[in-house]
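For the sake of transparency, this paper describes our internal protein records without simplification. Such a record has a labelled line for the sequence and another for the backbone structure tokens. Nothing more is needed to write down the fold, since each code stands for a local backbone conformation. For reference, a complete record is included directly beneath this paragraph.
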Amino acid sequence: MTSASSPDTAGSHDSSDAADELVPADETTVSPDESAAATDPADVPAEETGASATETAAPAEGPDDVAETTDADAAEAPVAAPAVPSPTPAPSPRPGPRPGARVAAPSEPWGRVDDEGTVSVREAEGWRVVGQYPDGTPAEALAYFERKFADLASEVTLLEVRHRRGGASASDLRTTALSVRAKLDGAAAVGDLAALVSRIDVLTAELAEASETEAVAAKEAVAEAVRERTVIVEEAEALAARDPQTVQWKQSTAEMSALFDRWQAHQQNGPRLPKSTAQQLWRRFRDARASFDRHRREFFSALDETHKAARDAKTRLVERAEALAPRGEDGIGAYRDLLDQWKASGRAGRKVDDALWARFKAAGDALYSARGEREAADIEASREKIEQKRALLEQAAPIVDEKNLGTARQRLTAIQRQWDEIGRVFPRDVERGLDDELRKIEQSVRTREDADWKRNDPEQKARANDMTRQITDAIAKLESELAGAEARGDKRAAAQASEALEARRGWLRALGG
């Protein structure tokens, strides 16, 4: 016979605790605190609340955590409702009902209490004494041990939920399930212990199978991790094998750093690789990084020498450009030659290049500034010439409408002579616009002269007369066809004849007929 609490409750308690230790019923009784907890107004039968025994335990957080309940906890929390028994005491081959589900009330209760407060649980082999509760009523005694059963049921339910919802290691859950299974043997609790044993046995079998599946998946994950880490190594080796003279070092350095970050993330978050494989891959990756860094140092060392030579050459070019300042605009040609040499002298580093270029450009700006001053003076001097040429354009405009071609040519020649006497004007774009306006008038007169020459050419006249005669004959024929089509009412033929007739008449007008 045992007392009201034992180390087989739903949680891992210290077996040395005197309040939880099992002792014979005639030597130890339930404490007044436990009696008060058993008579708490919150304790109501399951038939009145509709709650199952498994609803009293909250799921734990960690993969190996289970709900814990001590006698002191029982004094503070509502007492669990009695577990609902199955119709028969025989173990169920499948897991018990879902937590909170209602089942039919059994014809015989799972527990009983004698006059001395000794509590027994009904099992397949008969009644088994689970403890003693002499200082309370029979209902309080049963409620206390039914809470113990509810705690065990909560542990089983929690394991089932964690397994079926996924996310927890099947191997870890299997270890916990075996521990819970050991608690059920001779448990000091009142309820359908056989059903719990059946559920935990089914769950243990599922977890054993899932553990094997996990082992296979872990092996595949390691193989995949080896493949992924090998890809990282090969990419690092490819970076290290590039020609240092063609490498974009800023971009490549960032790529190598990204590969190292991927390596570290894979090492921290990925599965653990076999030691020999991990060391071999790391040596390859380390050697690739070392080779990459060596090539980069050698490249920039050589680049420093190149920059030094370019810096010296550009410094000399700057000094020569600055020496051209006294020549003013006449030094622009020599400055352009120096500019070609500047472009061919290579790079001296961004900061040095920028500083030297600022000096070189300032020397050129001084030369071009002298040209700008001269051009400004030319523009000022050209104001009167521009007005004179615009006046000539106004005089030339009526020439386009002059019917007498000879008179038109004579007037245009006189204006062209005055135009040349005025001379060039500035700026260039203004001069170009004025020349274009005069050129349009010249082109108009030239076009009329070409047409006049063609009309007066004997051969051209003969060809034109012959063509005129042919077109005239075609027009007469088409007029006849058009009249016939209209008489017949053939609109399509009439439209075709009319279109062809208009075309021939246009040709005739072009020939001057």
Remarks:
- The radius of gyration is 55 Å.
